[in-house]
Amino acid sequence: MATIEIETAIEYIDKYDFDYLMMDGGFIRYKINCLELFKELRECCERKNIILFGVIKDIKTNVIARSLELDESIYDREILFNRLNIGEAILIKNEINKKFIKDGMGEGFSSAFMRTSRFPGAIGVDILDTQEDYLMEICNLIYTLTPMSSRGVPLWLDIVDKDVKITDEILEMLLEEYLDRDVYERFFISERDKRSL
Q1: CA torsion through residues 22, 26, 28, 29, sign
Q2: How far apart are CA 156 and CA 153, in angstroms?
Q3: Which terminus, N or C, of the chain has the lesser number of Cβ atoms within 10 Å?
Q4: How far is the CA of 188 from the CAs of 16, 113, 118, 180, in angstroms?
Q5: What is the Cα–Cα distance from 152 to 174, expressed in whole angstroms?
Q6: CA-to-CA distance for 136 and 54, rounded, in angstroms?
Q7: DSSP code for 121
Q8: How confident is the model at residue 97 (pLDDT cuts 50, 70, 90)?
C-alpha cells in the first residue's frame, strides 16, 4: 500500500503544479517499506518546492514518556488525550524525536502533535527535516482543513478514505471469487454459518 501511495504521489507531481502534498499517515512506514521510492518522492518535492507532510491519526510514539523519563509503554496519544486545547500544537524538539536524523543525509523528519477538533485526541504531523521551517504553517493548514465536529483529521483524508476503502461486502466477494473454495470455507466461514436447520 505504501508503494502505491508514493507512486501515485510521484505521478501526480509530474502532471500538476501545486504547493503542498498531504499524505495519510506518518513517514516512517514509507522508510520501512519502500525507502528508495520515498527518497525519490522526497527529492521530487524538494526540487519543485512542494511541502510534503503526513497526518497521523493513530499516534504510536512515546516521545513524551521518553523525554520525561516515564514508563515508555505509555503512548503519546494517551498522555495527550484531552490535554490540548482545540487548535493547540506541540512541536517536538528534534533532539528527542527518533524520526529526526542528525547525519544531514536528508532522511529525517520533524514532527508535531496537535488537536484540531472537538475530538479530545491529538494527531501527529510529520514534515521533511529540510522543510522544518514550514511546520507551524502546515499545522495551521491542517487545522483549517479539519471540520470542528470531525474525528480530528483533514476533511480531504476522510473523503479519499471513503472513496478507496474496500467494504466488507467487496472483500468477501473478492475472497470468494479468487480463493480456492476449500481454503475460503476453512478460514472465512464459521461453524455457526455452516449450520442448517
Answers
A1: negative
A2: 8
A3: C
A4: 43, 39, 39, 12
A5: 32
A6: 14
A7: -
A8: confident
Closest CA relative to residue 126, chosen from 175, 176, 92: 92
| Locus of grid cell 508503494 | 3
Residue 144, CA atoms < 13 Å, CB-side half-sphere = 6
Q: CA-CA distance, 5 to 53, in Å (whole number)?
A: 13
Give tens-digit pLDDT for 123-153.
Answer: 999 999 999 999 999 999 999 999 999 989 9
Q: How many angstroms separate the CA atoms of 10 and 176, rounded?
A: 34
pLDDT digits (tens, 9 = 90+) for 4-47: 999 999 999 999 999 999 999 999 899 889 999 999 999 999 99
What are the cell numbers at 130? 529540510
